[in-house]
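Q: Hi! First time doing this. I have a protein sequence and I read that you can turn it into a structure. Is that right? Here it is:
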Amino acid sequence: MYSYTQLSGFLEGCFHPYMAVESSNGAEKTCRECGVTTLQLIKSFAVENDINYSLEFETHSVPLKSIAFDMEYAGSLHPPEVEEVEKRIEETLKKEEPSLDQLHSCIQSLCDSTALKDVEQPWILPLVSTLCDRCRFGESDLLNHPLAIILVVSSDDEDPLHRFDVLSQRVLQYPAFRSGSFSKAIPFFYFLIHSGDSASPADDIFRNMKSTFNASQCKLIRINSLPAEEKRSTTPSVLSSVPPGCCLRLSDADIAGMMETMHWVMMRSILPNLAKMIRCYTQDIVNDRRGIANALFGWLRTSSSPNLAATQEEEVVLFHANTIEFKIRFVADMAFLVHDYDTCIDYYRMLLDDYKNSNAQFQVAHASLMIALSFFLQANSPSSSGIQVRDMQFYFLQSIHLFDSSSYFSFLSAFLFSLCMSSHEIRTRSRLYDAHTLVTTLQPLASFSSVCSPVSLFWCAALQTQQHRRRAVFSFVLAALRFKKQGLFAHALLALLLAWRQYTAHGLDAIANYLAAETQILLLHQPSVDWDALARVQRLAFSPQHAASHASFFASLHLFPAERFPLHLTDCSLPLLLPHSLRVQYDENAHPDRAFWSFLTDAPDDEDAFAPILGSLARCRLDAARIPQFYEHSPYGFAGKKPQPVLPLGARVAVRLTLRNPLQETLVCERAVLIASGAQVEETQFKLAPQAEQEVCFLLTLAQEGECHITAVEFTLRGGEGGDGTDDGGGDGGGDDVSKVERVVVRQALRARGRRLNQTAEQRRRCVYGEESCLCLRVQKEAVRASCELQSLKPAFFFSELAALPLSLTNRGTAPLTTAFLLTNNYHWFVAQQDAQAVATLTNSQQALPATDFAQVYSLLRPGQTLAPGETITVPTYLHLPEGNGCAFLREEGPHTFYSLQCVLLLGATTITDNNATDNTWRMVRVRREVELKPLLDTKCSVVLDRKDVLFFKVVAENVAEEEIEEISVFSSCPYCHVVEAAPSLLTNVAPGTTHAMITGIASESRKDGKTTSARVLKEERYAPYMDFIKHFNTLEIRLNRMNLVPRIAGREHRFIDVVWTDQEKKRCGYLMKLLE
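A: Yes, that's right. Below is the predicted 3D structure, encoded as structure tokens:
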């Protein structure tokens, strides 16, 4: 539930030293001019930080680094009535109701057994704080013993000196002082409060005060010194206890005077007097309780009080200020307040025997409670070895057993016990943690009062979820009923949802209908209808076979007045946007097909594919920072945010979202549109069957320079006519009565979350996610834009297929393109080089052979050629697909294999700047395609006979495809080898699943046209792709480099052959290159 650090900090914040205030009616009237009470005004200054003070206890001193005092009116220093405690608890529960996010989270986790986690109680800490605040001033409880009395009189009071006497006598006649429950050895201070609007002679009155009372304890407080026309606009920040909008006329001098006064009161009077009391009381305790004689005869000792009583009314005066028990309790409580837990445990234990001898059961219970708290908080001490769980548990259970079951002290003790034992450290590391023990402690409180009963039941249910989940369902339902009876509908809804969550994981069919019905009723009790939650609950409540028998979501809207339609809802998840489904693309390629567009959101596959190419581009002579999109997919910076994308004016952007219909009826969206600034948005329509999912693409065009913010998406929704996924209204427009259908306009904010950050240990520990900037775009005019298209690119190819893919480049910008480079790391893709010198200038390398650690670079423009706006050029390219698996560009997805083809186009143009100077403008276009590869031919080669002039070898070819291969033959693209006549050197109409062999010879002589098999076959039309390919590219050198064969065959006899296959009807051709050694 909570960690030890959180709980210890919270509990220590619940206990502070006390000062009491007694004020006259005139003083209260004067303070009301500021909008506050005297208590609120003085309490704001009862805090001191960065102090250097020590309190001496019996064996050591405790340094104080800061101190804060609580304040209360002296007339309130008595135990509150039960009705007052219940009223405050009810106010706390109403204030700390479950948040909308918590209810949403609980609703979304219904029917998900993996979502069963710790049950959060958002009200538990404020409730315990309220109990600690209300369960004060109990019998012999000196935690709230006032360490000073401040008497406040106004300068406008009649006879202020007499008013001070009246106030001091009134304080001394209060029961706590009259009976001796509080010591009178505390300082009294006399505060004269004077308003700037008053005409009273404050200085004369103050002078008389100092001559009548102790001059050092008389103080003059000035307020409202600022004129009304010069008042502050906001409340001074130093006034922490003052409501906003009050004390606007306090001048800086007023504030400084009050701070100086309270500093003197605390540091020069209260703390020295407290140190003196502790020193005197400690000496009395040592004389009375320490030593061998006192230890030997301690069992004979009874209370130092003159009489013994069993009733709590008489126990109030049993241990008065002159008794040794009072002194021990005072020192113990003061040690607790200054966090000296070793001393307070020692003194509380010393006190228990005296209380037991006096039959003072309440005092024993309260002292046991304080010992238990001290053991829990003791782990904060530097010398502590950890939480002493066994001792803490013993004293907690003892206090619960001894407290009267009808007292709120019993309720507080049980709650503190459960809270401490449920801390994360004890629950996960201590063998003494037992949820059943906590449940048996809390269960009796369920019948204590109407306000506390549901809280106890809820906590019991939360503990029972760990072991007895069916009992937890019953406890949650009972808590919901009692919360509902108290009018706490949000609490009741949370209890029912948690019961339902337990029910869905461990079925209890008997209460299924009850849970669904009650949950919907409680949702309607909320101040505003939560449509998202109601839709989710309806979807879960109505099974598909009974959905038609229930009123649909949209049909239920007829209860609303007609003038309220269409209903406008914000952040209602109808339809439901699936988390992390948002993807943003834009037409970097300026192509109408969105499959060609690049991603602005995280796209790991694309980023990994383009990373080697962009890495090579970064090593070129061109400064990559001059390319606007180069850093779009750069890693998140240390701030966890990506650079803002820069897009050209007129670019089109696509936002793709996956939507789910959470209802049991068809959902018709008549209009869906993005909400974006500086852009023209396009409307779309869709229809979702019950519980169906669908990806919807929203388009916009960047129409203005500057920034474009995509903030939300808006849906105009109506229900389908049928609940079974059909719309009887006919088409998207519906029937004749469509205008009468209730419509709902839903606007949902769009938020893009990046990937999880892993740069620092803090990011890994806190699960920090990066901040995506894809919804905030910077738009500017761009003179360079182009589109690239690979012609003849089929959705599927065969392994080893050779395909001619002419590349067309169209200038869609406003400036002529002077430079166009293609960079790719696909060594199966061959582009006709147009300007080798331009490539050498860009890469600072001649690149006689393509380097394995650098992308292949091709110029698409010939020397001196430019591409005017609107013009298109076509460059011949060839793709020789891999011959088998093991290639880095292959991706397997089930039984299918896909090949990735990617490149980056680097485009440059000469533009005119604002000062009429020329500048080179650059832009890049990323192109990535995936095609499916199918197996076709499996070959093996082996040498049969090696003669001096001719090497005979056998080629075994197996058709592994599901279709016939028209022809298979053997050739050599090596200029120093040719295939000799041998039979059979040609296979035709090879059926699927069959295996054939060919015996062929190869001679190491220059090819003579017209005399070799290669020359004759290469002239046939069906081999045109192969013939054109070896005509434009030296395949031998390329293959030697890519297969890293040069070191392997250096100085050795070797031959290269190509096993070529063709299918003239389907216009396909390919080859497998083999090395013979």
